Amino acid sequence: MKILRSLAAGLIIFGISSFHAQKSDLGAWYMYFGNNKISKKLNWHNEIQYRNFDAGGDLEQLLIRTGIGYDLAENNNNILLGYGFILSQPYANGEKTENIEHRIFQQYITKQKFGRFYLQHRYRLEQRFLEDDFRMRFRYFLGLNIPINNKELVPKTFYASAYNEIFLHFDSPVFDRNRVYGALGYVINKNMRIEAGYMNQIQENRNRGQIQIGFYNNIPFTK
């Protein structure tokens, strides 16, 4: 257990030190994900992501998403309708610019378990209302969690986490980006967990790494 705690602390320390050593090449994403039951079948999704070009302060993107989902099966096969607000501050010719995007999205999530392997498939369709453009995009996410010190993802469990997500446009160019992620997570209790890891984002003309720290809250709003 002490070794696992040391690994978790080491990963976070490595991320913080890397921010200062590679400001131009390594970004940081701080993320909160809420998925809260509001009835037996309905859930409220709420999400905030604060994405930086460096450790903090040089904002790349602020993303806020929310939506209402419905379980087609007990705690599984969830369909959701959502909305996202995205504030981006990219650099153009060395100067900061600002763009605002409004996004409507529909998604389907299904979960599977094979022994110690927890799988999640997410299919998402996005309608993106940019300031001077409208685009549609499809995303497929495949995630995997594997408990380390317990057989199940019960409280006080460390786990390995990985995912791959591909983004495809409905027009040309079809390929938008691909994200590959690996992390170490910890289950705090039955409704909360935390992860720290590294994500590599591949785009047509850019390949950039991100340190990610995410907090997950599934506290139900029902008895």
TrEMBL record:
Query: What are the alphabetically sorted keywords of the record?
Result: Signal
| UniProt organism field | Chryseobacterium takakiae
- Tell me the leader sequence span: 1-21
Q: What is the official name of this protein in its record?
A: Intein C-terminal splicing region
Organism superkingdom: Bacteria
Q: InterPro entries from the xrefs?
A: DUF2490
